[in-house]
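Researcher: Quick test of sequence recovery. Tokens follow.
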């Protein structure tokens, strides 16, 4: 691209060549259709020529410049990737930013106005009803444009998270700081809204302007004067029905004047600009921006589906009116564009006539931005307004949510402690040390309840309404929850220490010995049932070689221990072992007679918290249990195919059932 005259000549030559070619090679009708088809391409050519020269490397993408904090205090956080883009600028550069309410097309208008073509979706465009852009994003490299004096200026573009978004954690304070920083960063601010607009829209813009004013005041109070010229404002109104304007006999400038007059007076903070108090007709935006221009942008396409999914469609299928209006946004933003700078003159945000600009390179600008972020933090007072009508209800809801959350956290720690004791159940010096470490670890996590609960509070809207009372409530609840949780964890530790000891004792006392004692102590027929506790936190679970829990019989729920024992005594398919879990709705089950699980020892390392395993001497079922063992032996012999050694197999099976089982040693790795 060269001078404007050269660009116009090139445009004329290309258009003439295209039309001549169509007329020479096609019929009149075909030429007309071909002309209609080529018009979108000519529109793209028009954009390219209008830009003059673009940087040679066109690999643009968006990178984050500011992110939301993990805890929504409203203080934005700098991102090195975006700062590196700024640091890379060794020549004068300008910044054009888009701000405004969520889901109004900020990302789209930036792409279609300034990157039309291959990179028109440089800023990701959402397709739903929730906010898509989060934080502040900057183009990875600048666009070079010709300015009024014929020189080349590098321009960086910034896209921002929409105000009042759905689906994200934001606050008025976060939005206030976002707008204030973008105001300070930018040479031009594009404020993007949707049609229709009225006095409430103007009031919203004025409110955002007041945030910028508050940030300027905060910087002034901290000794950080903002010595720069006021940026320019381009107000882009999307999906505008141009006929409403025509029917009123108005132009865009007339509409802007009408909206300005509809704005309420605001004199707050004007002193920081060195001006007098606002009059009844003052529009605060006029005091903060050098110029204001309103641009109407018509609907991109007649189809709702296309409009909702603009990122899927390139500009060639969009409305010519929309593309024309996007060009108008670009022209308004590029008009009289100034590089980022520092004024030689003392004062805060001066007019262009008052400022002798000294352009800043990227490293100097980054240092300036860091100071603005550090000293310019502001708080939107509306986040702190008290509503006494719903204060009690709001705090009660917070109390209930906190109680539930504390209980969930303690239950998680309790399960963690129980699991570690099970992993390190065997007696050894190393395991004893690991159990002690597990106790210390959960105790440390429990003591973090205070900090975690306060962080959750700041993320909630309650903090912004009732910061003092909310914090006091959380502190008190955290103290109570820690006390309750400590008692629970101490109880679990004592329980698991007892379990590990009883587990070792159980392994040292085979079921056969217990059964002999039961048989010796068996009561008279009228004296009731004879059963003994074998192990706590143990069940009749059956591995059965990985085939599932097939060697356990389920006898029902809602039973007392006595009722469970009675049910086992009457079901001779049960072996000698059974389980009862009072905490699990009174569950009752037994090992299956004639299987390795007859004494509920097939999976003797099983840990089932709250369940208790018993063994029963039941003379009434001895014959049936013997028959079950006999059938098991026959099945084992049949599986051996009747070959020599079958008798030895049968003897081995009998020995396995009637003699103490050989313990299996299981080795495994634990990854925490």
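Model:
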């Amino acid at each position: 691209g060269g001078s404007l005259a050269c660009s116009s000549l090139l445009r004329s030559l290309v258009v003439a060549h295209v039309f001549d070619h169509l007329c020479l090679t096609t019929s009149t009708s075909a030429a007309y259709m071909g002309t209609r088809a080529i018009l979108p391409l000519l529109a793209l050519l028009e954009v390219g020529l209008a830009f003059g020269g673009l940087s040679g490397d066109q690999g643009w993408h968006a990178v984050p410049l500011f992110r939301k904090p993990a805890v929504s205090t409203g203080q934005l956080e700098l991102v090195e990737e975006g700062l590196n883009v700024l640091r890379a600028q060794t020549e004068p550069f300008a910044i054009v930013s888009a701000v405004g309410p969520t889901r109004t097309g900020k990302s789209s208008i930036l792409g279609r106005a300034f990157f039309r073509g291959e990179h028109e979706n440089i800023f990701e465009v959402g397709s739903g009803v929730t906010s898509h852009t989060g934080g502040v994003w900057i183009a990875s490299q600048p666009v070079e444009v010709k300015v009024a004096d014929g020189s080349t200026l590098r321009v960086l573009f910034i896209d921002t998270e929409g105000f009042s978004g759905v689906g994200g954690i934001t606050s008025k304070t976060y939005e206030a700081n976002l707008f204030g920083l973008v105001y300070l960063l930018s040479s031009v601010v594009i404020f993007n809204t949707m049609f229709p607009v009225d006095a409430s829209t103007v009031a919203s813009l004025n409110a955002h302007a007041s945030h910028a004013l508050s940030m300027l005041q905060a910087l002034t109070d901290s000794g950080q004067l903002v010595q720069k010229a006021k940026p320019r404002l381009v107000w882009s109104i999307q999906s505008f029905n141009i006929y409403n304007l025509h029917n009123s006999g108005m132009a865009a400038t007339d509409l802007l004047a009408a909206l300005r007059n509809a704005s309420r007076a605001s004199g707050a903070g004007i002193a920081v600009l060195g001006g007098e108090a606002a009059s009844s007709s003052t529009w605060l935006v006029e005091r903060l921006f050098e110029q204001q221009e309103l641009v109407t942008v018509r609907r991109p396409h007649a189809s709702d589906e296309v409009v909702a999914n603009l990122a899927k469609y390139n500009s060639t299928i969009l409305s010519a009116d929309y593309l024309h209006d996007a060009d108008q946004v670009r022209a308004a933003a590029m008009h009289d564009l100034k590089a980022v700078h520092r004024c030689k003159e003392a004062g805060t945000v001066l007019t262009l006539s008052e400022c002798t600009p000294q352009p800043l390179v990227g490293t100097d600008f980054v240092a300036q931005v860091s100071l603005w972020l550090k000293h310019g933090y502001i708080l939107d007072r509306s986040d702190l307004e008290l509503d006494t009508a719903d204060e009690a209800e709001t705090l009660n809801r917070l109390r209930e949510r906190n109680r539930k959350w504390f209980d969930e956290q303690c239950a998680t720690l309790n399960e963690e402690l129980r699991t570690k004791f099970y992993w390190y159940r065997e007696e050894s010096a190393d395991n004893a040390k690991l159990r002690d470490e597990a106790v210390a670890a959960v105790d440390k996590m429990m003591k973090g309840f205070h900090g975690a609960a306060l962080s959750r509070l700041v993320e909630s809207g309650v903090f912004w309404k009732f910061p003092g009372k909310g914090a006091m409530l959380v502190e008190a609840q955290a103290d109570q929850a820690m006390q309750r949780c400590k008692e629970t964890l101490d109880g679990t530790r004592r329980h698991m220490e007892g379990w590990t000891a009883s587990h070792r004792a159980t392994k040292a006392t085979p079921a056969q010995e217990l059964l002999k004692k039961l048989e010796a102590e068996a009561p008279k027929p009228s004296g009731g049932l004879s059963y003994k506790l074998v192990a706590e936190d143990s069940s009749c679970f059956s591995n059965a070689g990985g085939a599932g829990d097939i060697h356990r019989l389920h006898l029902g729920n809602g039973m007392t221990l006595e009722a469970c024992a009675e049910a086992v005594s009457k079901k001779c398919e049960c072996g000698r072992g059974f389980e009862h879990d009072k905490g699990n709705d009174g569950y009752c089950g037994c090992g299956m007679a004639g299987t390795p699980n007859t004494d509920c020892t097939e999976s003797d390392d099983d840990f089932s918290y709250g369940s208790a395993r018993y063994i029963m001497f039941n003379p009434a079922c001895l014959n049936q249990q013997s028959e079950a063992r006999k059938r098991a032996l026959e099945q084992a012999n049949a599986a051996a195919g009747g070959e020599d050694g079958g008798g030895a197999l049968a003897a081995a099976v009998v020995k396995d059932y009637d003699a103490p089982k050989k313990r299996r040693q299981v080795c495994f790795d634990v990854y925490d």
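The radius of gyration is 39 Å.
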